[in-house]
Amino acid sequence: MEDFGKMLHRLREERGISLRKLASLSGVDHSNIGRAEKGQGGLSEQSVTYLDSALRADGELVEAYRASSGHEGRRGPAQRGARHDPEDLVRRRILIQQAVTALAAGTAGPALNAIRHGLVSSVTGREPGDLDVDEWEQIAHDYGVAYFTEQPAALIRNLAAELADLQGELNLVPDEEDIVHKGLSRSAALLAAVMAMSLVNVGEFQQSRLWWRAARQTADASRDPAVRIWVRGHDAMHALYDHRPLRAALARAGEALAIGGTTAYSGSGEALGAQAQTLALFGRADEARTAVSQLADLYERLPGDVTQDQGTIYGYPETRMWHSTSYVHTYLGDTAPARAAQESALTLYPIGRVRARAQVQLHTARCLVLDGHLDDGANHALAVIDAVPPEHRTAMVLGVGHKVYNAVPSSERTRPTVAGLREILALPAGTAAQ
After folding, report:
1. Is 167 inside any structural domain?
2. Per the database record, which ranges form the HTH cro/C1-type domain (predicted)?
3. According to the model, what pLDDT value does residue 180 have?
4. Domain end position, chosen among 79, 100, 128
5. Among 352, 427, 349, CA closest to 386
6. How far is 193 from 235, CA to CA, in rounded Å?
7. Which residues, including other chains, have CB under 8 Å from residue 374's CB and lie 6 or more apart?
8. Same domain, 72 and 171
9. Residue 207 phi/psi, 5° resolution?
């Protein structure tokens, strides 16, 4: 195998990247990169992981590092105590700052990629440490609450900082069978999924798909079926909003339901709801209605702590069932049962759940259009979107708005009311009309 230092130099030259540029992309000090290229060491395996990601080496650079260091399959001495290593802390903070700056400029991909890559690679950490699993579970819980109310862009910035720290914690865990490793992986999966959801909200669809992958990998590392199902259920649901093929949503929902078997989990409800909604979009009406009936049956079997959890994204309260039911009947054109489901959902949704309430109200607007009340439907949709604070006018909310517009016959889209709806939908997520 090619020497690590030579490979590092070759990859950098092939990509036309200077030492300082690579340092900026990876968060690794440029002088340490230069010494490594000369075979003088100075890099930890975690730093090499970031370099591998920045150079798009698909793991080859990490393999070369391990081979050159003579410790394939385990972490080297430089990794021990990494949690307290000043350079490691500085590097992770640089990555966080890059992610924040890039997000503001709309180019968050590379910085978020580096954090995500490190998180996934951390799943195979080998060094022990004094880690507080309960603390990370509380952090994950807090973000499950914040998801409903905090601005998505701010949530992404905060999550980037948390995940950068958590990947350092995971690096210190002895092995994948260790109870601490599993506990931290559980929290990592939940946080990575909230990151993916938030990226969908701001319209960063490609990044969100990568983070869903990271969430699935860390969920699998936790060996917790509830987490594995929950991540896949929400992945399936969000696939309906991030421009993925419908078959991808159906496949992910199927994975979640297969893992759960006959046991009812919170994620089972989300997966079955996503399956029903996808079938409705496919036009497979009988199957979609059957799935809605199955969802109602499953809801009755869910534990009380799951159905009563209205405050975090991790539960499956009655509102979620009615939301999915409204979606299915709306897109099948069954406007009477759709309106009944909408009334139930809006009665139960807390006033503070602005985005979810707006989506259900937009289902109502689409029903008005389908029933031939074009101006009323367009006006209702416009009023709903206009009432949503700009910072919560997410890609998911606007996506449902587009479905209202698309329900209007092409020949009727010159109506002033419909033109007004089209105008507000043309704005990027998170912005207001002038």
Report:
1. yes
2. 8-40
3. 86
4. 79
5. 427
6. 8
7. 368, 408, 409, 412, 415, 417, 418
8. no
9. -65, -40
**Which of 79, 100, 119 lies at the terminal end of a domain, its last residue?**
79
User: b vs e for 240-266, b when ≥16 Cβ sit within 10 Å of the residue's Cβ?
Assistant: bbbebeeebbbebbebbbebbeeebbb
Same domain, 49 and 148: no
Cβ atoms 245, 229 nearer than 8 A? no
Report yes or no on 17 lying in a domain. yes
Q: Provide the CATH number for the domain around residue 56.
A: 1.10.260.40
- Range of the structural domain that residue 8 is part of: 1-79
The structure tokens 């929902």 sit at 253
The two three-digit tokens of residue 398, written as one number: 């606007």
- Tell me the pLDDT of the chain (434 aa) as tens digits: 688 999 999 999 888 888 877 876 776 777 778 888 888 776 877 778 878 888 888 888 988 888 887 644 433 333 333 444 555 555 555 556 666 566 555 555 555 656 665 666 555 443 333 457 888 999 999 999 999 989 999 999 889 888 888 887 787 775 666 788 899 999 999 999 999 999 999 999 999 999 999 999 999 999 999 999 999 999 999 999 999 999 999 999 999 999 999 999 999 999 999 999 999 999 999 999 999 999 999 999 999 999 999 999 999 999 999 999 999 999 999 999 999 999 999 999 999 999 999 999 999 999 999 999 999 999 999 999 999 999 999 999 999 999 999 999 999 999 999 999 999 998 666 555 54
Determine contact, residues 259/225, Cβ cutoff 8 Å.
yes
Q: Where are the beta strands (DSSP E) in 268-311?
A: none
Query: How many domains are there within the chain?
Result: 2
Same domain, 111 and 34: no
Domain match, 27 and 130 both: no
Residues in the chain: 434
Please provide the DSSP assignment of 158-213 as one string.
Answer: HHHHHHHHHHHHHHT---TTSHHHHHHHHHHHHHHHHHHHHHHHTT-HHHHHHHHH
Sign of CA dihedral 259, 188, 44, 80: negative
Contacts of 212 (CB under 8 A, 6+ apart): 193, 196, 231, 235, 238
All residues at 6 or more sequence positions from 343 whose CB lies less than 8 Å from its CB, including other chains: none
Co-location of 70 and 89 in the same domain: no
Torsion of CA 147, 149, 153, 159, to 10 degrees: -40
CA distance 119 to 429: 28
Record the pTM.
Answer: 0.73
Q: Is the same domain home to 42 and 118?
A: no
